[in-house]
Design brief:
Length: 268
């Protein structure tokens, strides 16, 4: 119960901070609407193709790109939220105080992403609602598979953000993970075009990225696919979660310990 109370307190704190800047908060929602409408008109320039579908279900380009753009947001928020939380605490001078409380490091770092992920889920639903009004077909969606891949996406992406937060503790600068994973995600994970259009060696790199399997699973779930049909993508996300999750928490704890020894915990 103590852990839940602390996690809730961190969530409420982050929510109050976000809502204290209404222009920035509501600007994010307008950006979501603008992105949907922009790609709706771009999709009108692209002809239909079987490669936009998955698990035997055909789809238009708008169906393909709308689902990808909606759920790729989880990668961006995972990469940014954890490191920005630690960076913000450093800059306002509260990180050392927070570290002095009887709160475990895993609880502290993982709770710092709760508000960001909750807001992203709301924005993804808003994105899909606008896309549906413009013609996105969600009538065949498999709810169980969709929720399973949503959970796997968050679990597989979060360790990347925790590793980014670890780099903040050591280098006092934001890591280039946003550029690395943002650029790779857009180019190699099939966000804007199918992966099979890439050269074979690019496809091999794409297969290693968690966002590739996340988007495959989401598109399949939206098309009505079951977990058994999408098992390879689900298993890969599970493997990444099991491997990267404990490692990222260990790396963060080591980074905090080193900063304490160096006396640079609150530096930025």
């Amino acid at each position: 119960m103590s852990a839940l109370v602390k996690a809730r307190a961190i969530f409420v704190r982050d929510a109050r901070v976000a809502l204290a800047y209404p222009a920035n908060f509501w600007g994010g929602w307008f950006a979501v609407a603008g992105q949907v409408v922009t790609f709706y008109f771009i999709a009108k320039l692209v002809g239909s193709s079987q490669s936009y579908g998955i698990v035997g279900h055909p789809a238009t380009y708008f169906d393909y790109v709308a689902v990808n753009l909606a759920f790729v947001r989880f990668q961006g928020i995972a990469v940014h939220s954890f490191q920005q939380a630690m960076r913000g605490q450093q800059m306002i001078g509260t990180l050392e105080v927070l570290m002095a409380t009887p709160t475990s490091l895993p609880l502290m770092i993982l709770s710092s992403g709760l508000w960001a992920f909750a807001l992203t889920i709301a924005q993804v639903l808003f994105f899909l609602a606008i896309a549906m009004s413009l013609g996105l077909q969600l009538g065949h969606a498999n709810v169980v598979t969709t929720l399973a891949f949503l959970a796997l996406t968050i679990l597989a992406m979060s360790p990347i953000g925790v590793l980014s937060a670890a780099s903040i503790m050591i280098f006092k600068q934001e890591a280039p993970t946003a550029l690395l994973f943002g650029g790779l995600g857009t180019l190699l994970a099939g966000v804007l075009f199918p992966v099979d259009r890439l050269p074979h060696w690019f496809q091999a790199i794409s297969w290693l990225l968690p966002i590739t399997h996340s988007l495959n699973g989401m598109r399949g779930a939206i098309a009505g696919g079951s977990l058994s049909e999408l098992a390879p993508d689900a298993l890969w996300l599970c493997a990444l979660t099991v491997l990267l999750g404990p490692f990222s928490l260990w790396a963060f704890s080591r980074a905090v310990r080193r900063s304490k020894i160096d006396g640079t915990l609150g530096n930025y």
